[in-house]
């Protein structure tokens, strides 16, 4: 019963306090905290899910099985039992005939249901705009990539011959989601119905075809199915998910996701600081309140009961309000940004609400409760002493409860120990630095200067303890902002570097040595710059130091297939020798013995095969054998869109073997028809067109970058709000002092300067510490979270203090301007 | 036989002391109070004993720093003395913990402070309701209205402290102090109640305080600098350096002041 009475009294006092404006401080901080975190959690959740949906379109499925043979039908029946959606595609290269015209094409036969994720885009007439369709062509019909029409001299509605069957061209294919699944599929695309494949009678046992079995459905069912399936797969079959199918997109999405989690964690950090500051101010302002209540007969238990009851009610109301505001903000943000989402934004989920709820209560518990415990210990004798200080004693609860609840929340929210550790490292540095600043303030002889400096430094020194807290709070706000800006810059720069604006988007392969000059001339005539023309000889690695590799085939895919071997005297820009020697031009040999100069091996393959410098590798090339020692290990960038090779020999070493050449070049969209001319003039050369897939990857990364930037802007706003909250928490005393100095004849300019100096210096100190904290945070983040090399950020050390001084100085001066502009008596009366 | 007699005599003395304490509204015995400072312990009160019956009034005067506010706080149970015993309304508050002392204060102690100490977020009526609400009484609002009427502020019920003059604020504080008593055993502690008021308002507040004190038969302990105010009290205790100045305890109607 007394508990009920306490609760009712707490609620009555809560209502009165609210009306009196006292609680607005803490409530605003809580609402801000919860709405920020909820909005970011919602946004992150929807964006992440949209990114996953988008990423799955690169596979046209959630997961697939790739096989060189048709698979056992029992596997597909089992998938049905698991309730999975499925579809099938068969891809192969085949000659098409239309009248007297013949053209090699990349054929793809698709079953009903294809694509399971994403969509196709086609046109029924050449002049029509593209439209989205959910399935492939019906039986008897095919859709062609537009480039095929002029090559085969066809029009829509005409027939073409594929194997033994005649099929009608009923549309032009503009987009297929999984176009990138076979980068080296040669020629332009023909899409047909799988039911027509038997009639074409084109695939015999042993034909080179790729069978893909697509699956989608409930995550758990997928997981269970693939757990069942994987032991049954042979060496010709492989499960492909996004990570394997599109490593570049997968890695970009992974990093983007981690960035968003980082942003969410920083939002929690900022929210905690805002609530902590507000609660401290509330507790200070309530010291007199509690001392009076105690002198009127309220014991510590009763006071605590009342305040904890109030806090619980307040946390509940503020959290609900924050959840509502956060949800509204994100839904507005998402609808405004819907066009930039990588896929249709999925509906809101309930989990961000839990995150918001947890944030509200963790902030209330961790940061607002400890000051209330201190408040309940208020000495009632203070009413007689008229001393309203609330000495920061027995802070252990606050020191432990606050950071612990914050770190636990961040850990839970980000699911990443590394992010939690990074923020912990940054904050530890910040708090340590603040303690040092405290000692400097207390012990330093700062107030020996004159004029506004003396007033500003004196004021800083008098409130050393509180100023230390402010430096830590401002520093946290700045750390959150700086860490996010620098992490974002690093990520986006990395992505842009991976896919530069004019990265090669077409490959030419199967170039006969006699065609090299002609091709080079044709490209030059059209102002197209290609990479080097690399010779290519296909060979199998058969022995390492005399030991045959046939028993080790399971160890690596490179031992199961023929490798493309090449030679050059010039290292490509993305290649780097890590160990061993690269041959220079003077070593250029002329005979097969020059293979003794050795082979340069890609470093990751070398590691997988356990190679050492000097190991002897034997290759089988068209029945002949060649042996060479490992001369160097070489790193390279597979994403550079340039021809790259696991094995590079010295010039001359492979000269006696029949070689074809390969090159890549960037072709702008307006020159796309050059591909037709190339195919016409060099019919044996195969063109691999990567322009569409590169554009899609680039679009996806651009959208993800934009999302990251919008989250960053949200966070910057939250960071500024924390700074303003910090300033507001500290102005009352400053206003009073300024009013007294003015009463005593202090001039406005002097006061204004001293205020600007005081807050500016606080900002500089906070900025310096934030720079140190951010550097520590980024060091952990780059290595443990984003897999980027660590680089120092000298700009950080300049920007931190500068931004700190500017933001804190401006916010502080603006907040205190009434002390300068209003009559001092009015200020004093209002403060009283 | 002699031992038995001694024991009986000791028991009798103890019983007599207890009886005296019970019959007195306020009794302090050999109070000492020290606080720790950077330069060693500082004595704030030294060997103070006093006793006050129900309905009596006591003025404590002295220079600033003489220990009068500290004594007031100890007598009201806001703090515990370093040594000595205090009985309030027949109960030994020096044997109680903080919660028990708070409970006792909520029944029979009222305060009037120099700077009023009204809670700024609460209206006049809500301020007066607070003690009753802390006791969990249902009729807090009605009772607060009655007390405010008694101090002549029935028309200011819904005003906030900042909307009231200094004199009015102190009258609200007096109403709150009288609303603090749940029964007949009330003792009102006033710490320089006119200290923040001009002479005219100070006079009115004092009149009110004594009038209500007489009407309610409450015991009054007040700390003041004003000789005139001290002279209106039944007893007068002059303090200097934490001690009662020798020969300056004015017994008057004071039951007992031992030095």
UniProtKB/TrEMBL annotation, chain A:
Transmembrane segments: 259-279, 303-329, 349-375, 396-413, 419-443, 464-487, 706-729, 750-774, 794-816
Keywords from the named record: Cell membrane, Membrane, Transmembrane, Transmembrane helix
Location (main, coarse): membrane
Family annotation (InterPro entries): ABC3_permease_C, Membrane_comp_ABC_pdt
Coiled coil: none
Domain of life assignment: Bacteria
Membrane disposition: Multi-pass membrane protein
Stretches assigned to the ABC3 transporter permease C-terminal domain: 263-380, 711-821
Subcellular location: Cell membrane
One matching Pfam family: FtsX
GO cellular component, one term: plasma membrane
Keyword Membrane appears in the UniProt entry: yes
Protein name per its UniProtKB record: Putative ABC transport system permease protein
Organism this protein belongs to: Microbulbifer rhizosphaerae
Lineage: Bacteria, Pseudomonadati, Pseudomonadota, Gammaproteobacteria, Cellvibrionales
From TrEMBL, chain B:
Annotated family: Belongs to the ABC transporter superfamily.
Recorded GO MF terms: ATP binding; ATP hydrolysis activity
Keyword Transport: yes
InterPro entries, per the entry: AAA+_ATPase (IPR003593), ABC_transporter-like_ATP-bd (IPR003439), ABC_transporter-like_CS (IPR017871), MacB-like_ATP-bd (IPR017911), P-loop_NTPase (IPR027417)
Sequence ranges assigned to domain ABC transporter in this UniProt record: 26-259
Protein name stated in the entry: Putative ABC transport system ATP-binding protein
Coiled-coil blocks: none
One Pfam family linked to the record: ABC_tran
PANTHER family hit by this protein: ABC TRANSPORTER ATP-BINDING PROTEIN MG467-RELATED, LIPOPROTEIN-RELEASING SYSTEM ATP-BINDING PROTEIN LOLD
Keywords on record: ATP-binding, Nucleotide-binding, Transport
SUPFAM superfamilies linked: P-loop containing nucleoside triphosphate hydrolases
């Amino acid at each position: 019963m007394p508990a009920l009475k306490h609760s009712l009294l707490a609620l009555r006092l809560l209502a009165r306090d609210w009306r009196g404006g006292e609680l607005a401080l803490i409530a605003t901080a809580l609402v801000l905290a919860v709405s920020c975190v909820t909005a970011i959690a919602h946004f992150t959740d929807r964006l992440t899910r949209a990114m996953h949906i988008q990423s799955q379109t690169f596979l046209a499925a959630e997961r697939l099985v790739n096989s060189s043979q048709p698979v056992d039908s029992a596997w597909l029946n089992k998938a049905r039992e698991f309730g999975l959606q499925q579809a099938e595609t068969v891809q192969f290269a085949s000659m098409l005939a239309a009248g007297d015209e013949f053209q090699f094409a990349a054929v793809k036969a698709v079953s009903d249901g294809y694509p399971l994720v994403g969509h196709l885009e086609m046109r029924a007439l050449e002049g029509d705009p593209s439209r989205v369709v959910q399935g492939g062509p019906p039986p008897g019909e095919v859709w062609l990539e537009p480039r095929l029409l002029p090559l085969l001299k066809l029009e829509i509605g005409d027939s073409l011959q594929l194997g033994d069957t005649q099929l009608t061209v009923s549309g032009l294919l503009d987009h297929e989601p999984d176009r990138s699944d076979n980068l080296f599929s040669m020629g332009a695309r023909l899409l047909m119905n799988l039911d027509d494949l038997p009639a074409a009678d084109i695939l015999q046992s042993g034909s080179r075809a790729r069978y893909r079995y697509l699956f989608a459905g409930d995550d758990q069912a997928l997981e269970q199915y693939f757990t069942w399936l994987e032991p049954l797969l042979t060496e010709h079959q492989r499960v492909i998910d996004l990570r394997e199918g599109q490593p570049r997109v997968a890695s970009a999405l992974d990093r983007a996701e981690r960035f968003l989690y980082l942003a969410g964690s920083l939002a929690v950090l900022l929210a905690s600081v805002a609530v902590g500051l507000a609660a401290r101010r509330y507790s200070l302002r309530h010291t007199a309140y509690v001392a009076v209540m105690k002198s009127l007969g309220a014991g510590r238990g009763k006071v605590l009961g009342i305040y904890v009851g109030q806090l619980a009610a307040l946390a509940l109301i503020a959290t609900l309000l924050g959840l509502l505001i956060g949800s509204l903000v994100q839904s507005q943000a998402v609808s405004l940004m819907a066009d930039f989402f990588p896929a249709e934004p999925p509906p809101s989920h309930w989990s961000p609400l839990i995150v918001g709820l947890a944030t509200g209560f963790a902030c209330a518990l961790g940061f607002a409760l400890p000051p209330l415990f201190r408040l309940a210990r208020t000495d009632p004798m203070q009413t007689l002493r008229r001393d309203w200080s609330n000495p920061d004693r027995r802070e252990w609860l606050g020191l432990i409860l606050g950071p612990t609840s914050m770190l636990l929340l961040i850990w839970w929210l980000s699911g990443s120990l590394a992010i939690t550790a990074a923020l912990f490292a940054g904050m530890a540095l910040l708090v340590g630095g603040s303690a040092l600043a405290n000692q400097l303030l207390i012990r330093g002889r700062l107030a020996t200067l004159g004029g506004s400096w003396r007033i500003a430094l004196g004021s800083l020194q008098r409130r050393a303890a509180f100023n230390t807290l402010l430096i830590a709070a401002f520093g946290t706000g700045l750390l959150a902002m700086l860490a996010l800006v620098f992490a974002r810059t690093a990520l986006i720069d990395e992505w842009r570097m991976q896919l530069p604006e004019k990265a090669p988007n077409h490959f030419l392969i199967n170039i006969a040595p006699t065609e090299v000059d002609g091709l080079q001339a044709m490209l030059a005539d059209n102002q197209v710059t290609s990479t080097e023309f690399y010779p290519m000889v296909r060979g199998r690695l058969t022995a390492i130091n005399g030991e045959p590799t046939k028993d080790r085939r399971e160890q690596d895919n490179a031992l199961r297939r023929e490798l493309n071997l090449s030679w050059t005297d010039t290292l490509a820009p993305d290649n780097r020798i890590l160990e061993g020697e690269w041959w220079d031009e003077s070593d250029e040999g002329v005979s097969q013995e020059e293979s003794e100069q050795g082979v340069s091996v890609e470093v990751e393959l070398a590691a997988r095969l356990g190679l050492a410098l000097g190991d002897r590798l034997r290759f089988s090339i068209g029945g002949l054998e060649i042996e060479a020692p490992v001369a160097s290990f070489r790193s390279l960038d597979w994403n550079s869109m340039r021809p790259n090779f696991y094995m590079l020999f010295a010039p001359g070493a492979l000269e006696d073997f029949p070689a074809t050449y390969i090159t890549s070049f960037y072709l702008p969209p307006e020159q796309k028809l050059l591909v037709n001319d190339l195919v016409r003039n060099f019919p044996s050369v195969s063109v691999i067109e990567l322009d569409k897939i590169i554009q899609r990857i680039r679009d996806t990364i651009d959208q993800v970058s934009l999302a990251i930037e919008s989250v960053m802007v949200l966070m910057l706003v939250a960071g500024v709000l924390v700074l303003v909250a910090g300033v507001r928490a500290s102005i009352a005393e400053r206003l009073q002092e300024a009013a007294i100095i003015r009463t005593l004849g202090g001039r406005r300019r002097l006061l204004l300067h001293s205020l600007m100096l005081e807050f500016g210096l606080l900002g500089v100190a906070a900025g310096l510490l934030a720079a140190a904290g951010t550097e520590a945070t980024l060091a952990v983040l780059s290595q443990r979270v984003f897999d980027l090399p660590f680089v120092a950020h000298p700009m950080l050390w300049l920007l931190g203090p500068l931004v700190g001084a500017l933001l804190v100085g401006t916010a502080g001066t603006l907040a205190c301007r009434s002390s300068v502009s209003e009559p001092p008596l009015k200020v004093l009366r209002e403060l009283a | 036989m002699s031992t038995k007699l001694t024991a009986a005599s000791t028991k009798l003395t103890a019983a007599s002391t207890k009886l005296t304490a019970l019959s007195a509204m306020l009794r302090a015995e050999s109070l000492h109070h020290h606080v720790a400072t950077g330069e060693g312990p500082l004595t704030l009160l030294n060997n103070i004993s006093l006793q006050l019956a129900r309905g009596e009034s006591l003025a404590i005067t002295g220079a600033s720093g003489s220990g009068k506010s500290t004594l007031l706080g100890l007598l009201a149970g806001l703090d515990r003395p370093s040594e000595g015993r205090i009985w309030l309304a027949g109960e030994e508050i020096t044997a109680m913990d903080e919660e028990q002392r708070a409970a006792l204060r909520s029944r029979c102690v009222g305060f009037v402070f120099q700077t009023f100490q009204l809670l700024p977020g609460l209206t006049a009526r809500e301020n007066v309701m607070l003690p009753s609400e802390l006791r969990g009484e249902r009729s807090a609002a009605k009772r607060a209205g009655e007390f405010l009427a008694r101090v002549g502020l029935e028309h200011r019920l819904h005003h906030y402290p900042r909307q009231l003059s200094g004199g009015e604020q102190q009258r609200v504080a007096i109403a709150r102090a009288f609303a603090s008593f749940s029964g007949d055993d009330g003792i009102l502690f006033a710490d320089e109640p006119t200290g923040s008021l001009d002479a005219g308002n100070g006079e009115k507040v004092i009149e009110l305080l004594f009038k209500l004190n007489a009407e309610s038969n409450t015991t009054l302990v007040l700390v003041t600098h004003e000789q005139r105010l001290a002279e209106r009290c039944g007893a007068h205790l002059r303090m200097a350096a934490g001690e009662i100045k020798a020969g300056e305890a004015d017994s008057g109607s004071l039951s007992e002041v031992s030095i």
